[in-house]
């Protein structure tokens, strides 16, 4: 955290007792001389430090005041790494019963605690104990400086655990409610600094910090709002804390939504980030929409300030996870700004949040899928996807895969030429991008349209075309990739497009690979298989994880490969080894069994692809 509020007043003139020890008289004279030449004097070593040390350890409270005030004034102007010989006299002054000495000594220590090395040394020398005593002081000025020093000490990770164990959290929480705004700022700043590790967050919650931080969201002071909002954002990272917040703080979301309209940009930003973390849970995803959080989030997306854009985009992404929020987000006007952010090449995270949100919005509704396509999302994806970073490519191809599940949109997507960019990406250096691109092509191939000309157009181009992609995936060591390829070929063949069937049949390398896969033993029909006639298990067009093992997956691949050989009228090899799919013959019931089994195989592939997609 940045600087803290100092409550150290100006030096006062002291009238010393007439009887001083000789060394004290010399120290006073030396210090006065050094202060006259303070611009050229190093007070942290040699004779100047010796003079200050003598006065600090004096039994004369006036001399202690002079030393404490001198330390405060010196460290206000210059902070450097110091040793124990400097800290010992300052720490001794903290034990004084005089408020002026305490106030000035804690101010000096807080100044020195700006230096990273000093932070560690102060704690190791036992500085926390006297600081905690001063936090409990009845004097507001002493409280202010003591809390400010702890705030600075708490910025070092190695100090946080010791601060938490020292008993400092309860007085810090109490002082966060101080009527003095300087004390309140320093206390809330210290609490914020203690929220950066799971262990410390739990200790803060146990100390009763949550209701204090939530109540101070309505503070008139911008700094206090910022510290409390950021602290609550960090606390909300943990699921157990979100549960506690949900149980005890019913007005939290309303307060944070209001703070997104704060005059302070940093408060707006942290409010959106706090809501983002809360929106990891379903309850908060719904509440953010319920309490009109979409309007300020949309405004923040239009900001020119990157942190605001990023925080708002991250929040909307989480809110969009809940199916009930998809239509409200679309109806609130988010599609165009989200699509525009796909081109926000100065920040990859913003692009990822935007495209992931669009994918979430498309997940549950045909209406929403159509709205996203109509708004121009696919054209923008096609324009950008080959040049954006891999993480963005992964999200974009996953989004296309979801949109391609819509039978009504498939002809439109094919007409846009989306295959021309998906095919090169099946050879990406990223396994995720490969899998998502292939899944999108597979979804497009299923019930695509009466006209399969777009697939014929890309059979050999670009980058070797659909043909090269299928060959590559059929020979992959990854059974998920094999599964996608054989399932896609089945879809293309079942379209009964003459040119497409000829393309597949006339490729020796494709047929050879299919024969190899078909030679695997048939899968066992026992076990926890999906019943194609059970509508409660979802349609065959849904990606559902049915828990297939690798062995079961290989069996599904072999079954689909045999189906391909049947469809290409080249199944003689499969019949000879007894591993062909059930012969159709004239048995009507056999035909039904076959059709049902193929449907089950399709569902199994969907499950396999779902596992690949949900892994990122």
UniProtKB/TrEMBL annotation:
<comment type="function">
    <text>Functions in both vacuole inheritance and protein targeting from the cytoplasm to vacuole.</text>
</comment>
<keyword id="KW-0677">Repeat</keyword>
<feature type="compositionally biased region" description="Acidic residues">
    <location>
        <begin position="539"/>
        <end position="550"/>
    </location>
</feature>
<dbReference type="InterPro" id="IPR045156">
    <property type="entry name" value="Vac8"/>
</dbReference>
<dbReference type="InterPro" id="IPR016024">
    <property type="entry name" value="ARM-type_fold"/>
</dbReference>
<dbReference type="GO" id="GO:0000329">
    <property type="term" value="C:fungal-type vacuole membrane"/>
</dbReference>
<protein>
    <recommendedName>
        <fullName>Vacuolar protein 8</fullName>
    </recommendedName>
</protein>
<dbReference type="GO" id="GO:0071562">
    <property type="term" value="P:nucleus-vacuole junction assembly"/>
</dbReference>
<keyword id="KW-0519">Myristate</keyword>
<dbReference type="GO" id="GO:0043495">
    <property type="term" value="F:protein-membrane adaptor activity"/>
</dbReference>
<keyword id="KW-0449">Lipoprotein</keyword>
<dbReference type="Pfam" id="PF00514">
    <property type="entry name" value="Arm"/>
</dbReference>
<feature type="region of interest" description="Disordered">
    <location>
        <begin position="565"/>
        <end position="616"/>
    </location>
</feature>
<keyword id="KW-0472">Membrane</keyword>
<dbReference type="GO" id="GO:0000045">
    <property type="term" value="P:autophagosome assembly"/>
</dbReference>
<keyword id="KW-0926">Vacuole</keyword>
<dbReference type="InterPro" id="IPR011989">
    <property type="entry name" value="ARM-like"/>
</dbReference>
<dbReference type="InterPro" id="IPR000225">
    <property type="entry name" value="Armadillo"/>
</dbReference>
<comment type="similarity">
    <text>Belongs to the beta-catenin family.</text>
</comment>
<feature type="region of interest" description="Disordered">
    <location>
        <begin position="517"/>
        <end position="550"/>
    </location>
</feature>
<feature type="compositionally biased region" description="Basic and acidic residues">
    <location>
        <begin position="565"/>
        <end position="590"/>
    </location>
</feature>
């Amino acid at each position: 955290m940045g600087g803290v509020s100092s409550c150290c007043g100006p030096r006062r003139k002291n009238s010393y007792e007439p009887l001083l020890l000789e060394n004290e008289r010399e120290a006073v004279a030396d210090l006065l001389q050094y202060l006259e030449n303070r611009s050229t004097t190093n007070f942290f070593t040699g004779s100047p430090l010796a003079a200050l040390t003598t006065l600090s350890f004096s039994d004369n409270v006036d001399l202690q005041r002079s030393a404490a005030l001198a330390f405060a004034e010196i460290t206000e102007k210059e902070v450097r790494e110091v040793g124990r010989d400097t800290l010992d006299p300052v720490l001794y002054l903290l034990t004084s019963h005089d408020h002026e000495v305490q106030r000035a000594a804690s101010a000096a220590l807080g100044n020195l605690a700006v230096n990273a090395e000093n932070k560690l040394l102060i704690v190791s020398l036992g500085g926390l104990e006297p600081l905690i005593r001063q936090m409990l002081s009845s004097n507001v000025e002493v409280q202010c400086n003591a809390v400010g020093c702890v705030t600075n000490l708490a910025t070092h990770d190695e100090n946080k655990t010791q601060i938490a164990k020292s008993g400092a959290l309860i007085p810090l929480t109490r002082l966060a409610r101080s009527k003095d705004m300087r004390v309140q700022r320093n206390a809330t700043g210290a609490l914020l600094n203690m929220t950066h590790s799971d262990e410390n967050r739990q200790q803060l919650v146990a100390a009763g910090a949550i209701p204090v931080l939530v109540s101070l969201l309505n503070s008139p002071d911008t700094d206090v709002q910022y510290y409390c909002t950021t602290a609550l954002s960090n606390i909300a990272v943990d699921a157990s804390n979100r549960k506690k917040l949900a149980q005890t703080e019913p007005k939290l979301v309303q307060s944070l939504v209001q703070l997104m309209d704060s005059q302070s940009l940093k408060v707006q930003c942290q409010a959106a980030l706090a809501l983002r973390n809360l929106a990891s849970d379903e309850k908060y995803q719904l509440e953010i929409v319920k309490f009109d959080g979409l309007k300020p989030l949309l405004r923040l997306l239009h900001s020119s300030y990157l942190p605001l854009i990023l925080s708002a985009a991250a929040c909307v992404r989480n809110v969009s996870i809940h199916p009930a929020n998809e239509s409200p987000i679309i109806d609130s006007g988010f599609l165009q700004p989200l699509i525009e952010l796909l081109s926000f090449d100065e920040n990859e995270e913003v692009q990822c949040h935007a495209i992931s949100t669009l994918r979430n919005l498309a997940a549950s509704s045909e209406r929403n899928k159509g709205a996203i396509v109509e708004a121009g999302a696919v054209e923008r994806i096609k324009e950008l996807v080959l040049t954006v970073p891999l993480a963005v490519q992964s999200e974009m191809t996953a989004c296309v895969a979801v949109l391609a599940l819509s039978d009504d949109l498939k002809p439109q997507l094919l007409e846009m030429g989306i295959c021309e960019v998906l095919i090169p990406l099946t050879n990406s250096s990223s396994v995720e991008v490969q899998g998502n691109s292939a899944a999108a092509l597979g979804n497009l191939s299923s019930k695509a349209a009466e006209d399969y000309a777009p697939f014929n157009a890309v059979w050999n181009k670009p980058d070797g075309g659909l043909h090269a992609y299928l060959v590559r995936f059929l020979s992959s060591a990854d059974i998920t990739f094999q599964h996608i390829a054989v399932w896609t070929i089945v879809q293309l063949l079942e379209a009964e497009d003459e040119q497409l069937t000829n393309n597949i049949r006339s490729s020796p390398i494709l047929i050879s690979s299919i024969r190899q896969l078909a030679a695997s033993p048939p899968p066992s029909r026992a076990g926890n298989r999906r019943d194609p006639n059970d509508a409660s298990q979802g349609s065959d067009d849904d990606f559902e994880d049915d828990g297939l093992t690798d062995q079961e997956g290989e069996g599904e691949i072999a079954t689909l490969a045999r189906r391909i050989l049947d469809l290409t009228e080249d199944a003689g090899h499969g019949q000879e080894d007894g591993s062909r799919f059930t012969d159709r013959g004239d048995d009507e019931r056999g035909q039904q069994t076959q059709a049902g089994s193929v449907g089950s195989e399709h569902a199994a592939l969907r499950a396999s692809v779902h596992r690949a997609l949900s892994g990122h």
